[in-house]
Amino acid sequence: MDSAGFPTVRMRRLRRTAGLRAMARETRVSASQLIAPLFVRKGKNVREEISSLPGVFRTSPDTALREAEEFRKLGIPSVILSGIPERKDEEGTEAWDDEAAVQQTARLLKKEIPDLVVMTDVCLDEYTSHGHCGVIRNGEVDNDATLPLLAKAALSHARAGADVVAPSDMMDGRVAAIRAALDDHRFAERAILAYSAKTASAFYGPFREAADSAPKFGDRRGYQMDAGNSREAMREIELDLQEGADAVMVKPALPCLDTIAKARARFDCPIAAYNVSGEYAMVKAAGRNGWIDEKRVTCEVLTSIVRAGADWILTYHAKEAAAWLADGTFLA
After folding, report:
1. CATH code, 117
2. Which helix (H) or strand (E) holds 262?
3. Is 110 annotated as catalytic?
4. Of 88, 198, 284, 295, which is the active-site residue?
5. Is 20 among the domain residues?
6. For the chain, how many structural domains are there in total?
7. What's the CA gap between 141 and 92, in Å, rounded?
8. What number is the average pLDDT over the span 221-241?
9. Helix extents (H) in 194-229
10. Does 251 qualify as catalytic in the annotation?
11. Is residue 9 part of a domain?
12. Is the N end or the C end of the chain the one with fewer CB atoms within 10 Å?
């Protein structure tokens, strides 16, 4: 019998106990990789659970602060804020209102938890009456007319204290417009996380309920990527990096694990992946029906995203995953 094979080599030896499995694990998830989403609106003591996202809430700035304090205790370093406006209009003007919910929350979080990394979602869809990510001209989203509005929103977020602005709109040239606005107004140190490879996915449904941001007509396939195109995703990432992005996002995560892996092999920058609302909702629904082991599935999902090459994971599972990591039961 060849000594290089069975029975001399037995792959199961390092799988025999939980301790051995943990020591031999190649891919490790850390709470420091997690970004927790927060949906914020004006008011006080607001905490409204989102029906399609069990365990996720719309919060006012004060309750968002309490949530963020819990995240930090669990070792989660960052939150990303999405706004629920008081009013909507054709251009989404509340997106750059310095007293809007995102801006109020960012100021409060940076005052009370200075070491928290505050990110903000820069897009117009939550704020526009038509639900699209930009200005409408002749029935279509006008890319170039949208750029200065996105820059105004990002600048307002930076004034409020955001450490990272994250444009998710998929307009061409928006990273360059935002970078120029930040630099011109003495915010050159603020980072941009570009949603570079964002497909027009059906997995975003629960988010659109949470933010009331579904398009009132048509869809977003004219500006978000086709789900079949991973080579195009590499072009999108490269262009955003050339325009000044400091990190890039692949969204959604699970249908795009191959895209994450390709990006990791090609680019030397932080790569984030968005474990989106539909992915979360499916796990929660199946878990509540007893069809899957929710905890184990969640751990496998997050591990697969890191294994594919993501440095950061934006996920609604952040709090529970961090708790499992803290008590040693993640993938145990």
Report:
1. 3.20.20.70
2. helix 257-266
3. no
4. 198
5. no
6. 1
7. 13
8. 96
9. 205-211
10. yes
11. no
12. N
